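Incident review: delayed structure delivery

Summary: a single-chain prediction request sat in the queue longer than the usual turnaround. Root cause was a stuck worker, restarted by the on-call engineer. No data loss occurred. The affected request and its eventual output are reproduced below so the record is complete for anyone auditing the incident later.

Affected input:
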Amino acid sequence: MIINGHKFEVSGLFVKTYEDDAILRFPSQPRHKVAALVLHETVTRELSTTLRALTARRLGVHLIVAPDGSVTQHADLFRDRLAHAAGLNAASVGLELVTPYYPHFLRPGSPWTEIIPAPWAHGGRYVLPLPCQLEAVARLVSFLTGPESGFLIHKSWPGVTGSSLAMGRVKDPHPRPGIWAHHYVGHADGAFLVLYAWLRLEAGLSPERAFNEARSLATGAGQVIDLSKGRAQSEV
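Output delivered after worker restart:
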C-alpha cells in the first residue's frame, strides 16, 4: 500500500497498487490532510466494470475490494484527492467493495447468494457481500485507523450514537474524523460494511460470528440498528 509516497504492508492482505502497469491510477487533485474513510458498494459484479463506470462518471476511489477479497489501490491514500463522497472528498480515503447490491443484478454463477429483507437499503432487499470481502474491509479499516499507517483517521464511528448504529442518513453530517458509510451523506451504500467492521473491531467478534451477527441485525431493520439487541455486547 502506498501512503504519501511510502510503501506499507497490511497484515493479512496483499494490496496490488498502481505501480503495477495493470492497475489504473485515477486522475486526482493534490491534498495535504486525511481524516476519514468512506465505505462504498459498487452495484457491479466485476472490478473491470467498476473501473469503467467510475471513469465514465469522472469519479474515483483509492481502494477497491474485488469479489475474491483481493485489494487494488488506485491512488496515493494521502496525496490524492478523488471525487467519491461530495463534501467528504477533501480529507477522506474512498474504499469500494464490488457487489451487485440489488437482487436483480445477480446472475447465474455469481458468488453472491444471500439476499435479506432490508428496509434500510434502497429497494428494500439487499445482497450480502461475501465474508472474504467484508473481512478485507475490516482489515483495511484496522490498518488505516492504526498507528502503522501514520494517518490521522481515528477509529471512531460517526454513525454510532450510544448503542444505535445508523443504517441511513446521519443528521447534520460534517467531515469529522472516522469511518463513514456513503449512505450517511449520499447513496444508500456502505452501511452494512460499517456494521461488520464495528462488530469485528469494537465488539471483538470473530469473522464468522461478525458476519452472522451483522446479517441478523441488518435483516428487517430500519434506518437505525440497536446494537444492544445483538449478541455482540457479550464480547465487548
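Verification: Residues 131-144 form the longest helix (14 residues).
Action items: add queue-age alerting; document worker restart procedure.
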